[in-house]
């Protein structure tokens, strides 16, 4: 069962330790690697969540998978999680670490969703426009494709959403027709 408070505390402790040892950037890249691993390998995720596999076996397997790919601090952190029986929370801890890192470095994650793939030139123009019209200077743009939008785009930054999609405009027109008494009187 995911525990945001637990994940946040472990992530904060790891960030503090990484800052003290001057390894914050390395640990961030380790967390990105581990996030990719947990998202791409269902077997790895099942291993972490399995109550049947003993802790010493989990440590050996995780060490074998990450050997030479992560720092000694990250490897020690993984061992600590497994020893404490908190390894099932690793995906949530990773996500919390990445979010706290971005907040610390003032990096804003922005999601651009379009009906068709957009060029790098358009992405750069959007980032430039965001920098000019907001207080966001460090922007990490994630581009997604959703054909259900029909056309246009949606742009999400934090809790703000700009929906300039054709699908949203069509829904608004349909809503206006439903609420229009004049249309009912004609029938």
Automatic annotation (TrEMBL):
* Compartment(s): Cell membrane; Membrane
| Protein name in UniProt | ATP synthase subunit delta
Q: Which family does it belong to?
A: Belongs to the ATPase delta chain family.
Gene3D superfamilies, alphabetized: N-terminal domain of the delta subunit of the F1F0-ATP synthase (1.10.520.20)
Q: Name one GO cellular component term.
A: plasma membrane
What keywords are annotated for this sequence in UniProt?
Answer: ATP synthesis, Cell membrane, CF(1), Hydrogen ion transport, Ion transport, Membrane, Transport
| Entry membrane topology | Peripheral membrane protein
Q: Which organism is it from?
A: Paraflavisolibacter caeni
């Amino acid at each position: 069962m995911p525990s945001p408070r637990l994940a946040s505390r472990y992530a904060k402790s790891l960030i503090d330790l990484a800052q003290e040892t001057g390894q914050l950037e390395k640990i961030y890249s380790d967390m990105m690697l581990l996030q990719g691993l947990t998202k791409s390998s269902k077997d790895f995720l099942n291993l972490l969540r399995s109550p049947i596999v003993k802790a010493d076996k989990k440590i050996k397997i995780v060490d074998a998978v990450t050997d030479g790919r992560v720092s000694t601090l990250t490897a020690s952190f993984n061992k600590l999680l497994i020893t404490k029986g908190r390894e099932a929370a690793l995906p949530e801890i990773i996500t919390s670490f990445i979010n706290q890192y971005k907040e610390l470095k003032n990096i804003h994650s922005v999601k651009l969703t379009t009906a068709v793939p957009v060029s790098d030139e358009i992405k750069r123009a959007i980032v430039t426009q965001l920098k000019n019209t907001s207080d966001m200077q460090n922007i990490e743009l994630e581009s997604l494709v959703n054909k259900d939008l029909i056309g246009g785009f949606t742009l999400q930054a934090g809790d703000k959403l700009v929906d300039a999609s054709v699908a949203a405009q069509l829904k608004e027109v349909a809503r206006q027709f439903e609420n229009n008494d004049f249309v009912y009187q004609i029938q």
